[in-house]
Write a structure and sequence with these properties.
single chain; about 210 residues; Gyrase A, domain 2; four-stranded mixed β-sheet; about 20% helix; about 30% strand
Length: about 210
């Protein structure tokens, strides 16, 4: 699992990986070694689609040299905490996604509920996690015309990702359901329900 380590400013490193799965494995290993006191002084470890940013690094040059020698194992399927999100399969794009998949609308919910997702990274809005886990054959394109307002709690698909809108905002993802789960609450610790590395399962709301 090769990595390219780049200096960013005076106290940050950017790790470039070959895939999202590799970025997830490196993110998990960096957190593990930081918790074990093996990483040195690093303020933040932030994953993205195919990169991991280390910010607030006390010795960037020294750490970069060490990272290039690391052997990082693939991320175990059962690694990470599990978050269950109750969903009503009532999204306005549900029938369209069913048509793209060649299944019934009810089957879309069963397929998504039967898939274990993982939060690859967060972005777009506070509390929005990009969830991987859908097989390539089930990936759907974004809408040609984005909606000006997507309701908070909308469960959606776009390309290789699933996600839940934490607040009302514009968006072009395909909406297949809705949830009452609170994705972002500044009064809660942690504020975000979904954090990078967490496993996510959707279940039909009762």
């Amino acid at each position: 699992m090769s990595v390219r380590v780049l200096r960013v400013g005076a106290s940050a490193l950017l790790l470039e990986l070959g895939s999202g799965a590799e970025a997830g494995a490196w993110h998990a290993e960096l957190l593990r070694r930081r918790d074990a006191g093996e990483l040195g002084a690093v303020r933040e470890v932030v994953p993205a689609a195919r990169t991991v940013l280390l910010d607030g690094v006390a010795d960037p040059a020294g750490l970069a040299a060490r990272l290039e020698r690391w052997e990082v194992p693939a991320l175990a399927a059962a690694a990470g905490p599990l978050v269950t999100v109750p969903v009503r399969w009532d999204g306005p794009d549900l029938a369209e996604v069913a048509g793209l998949w060649g299944v019934s609308s009810a089957e879309v919910g069963r397929i998504v509920a039967g898939t274990e997702f993982r939060v690859a990274f967060c972005g777009f809005a506070p509390g929005f996690g990009y969830l991987t886990g859908l097989p390539e054959r089930l990936q759907v394109p974004r809408r040609a015309t984005p909606r000006t307002a997507v309701p908070a709690g909308s469960v959606a698909l776009a390309g290789p990702y699933a996600g839940v809108y934490p607040r009302s905002s514009p968006g072009g993802w395909r909406l297949i359901g809705s949830t009452d789960a609170v994705l972002w609450d500044p009064e809660r610790e942690p504020a975000a329900l979904l954090a990078p590395g967490a496993r996510v399962r959707f279940e039909e709301a009762r």
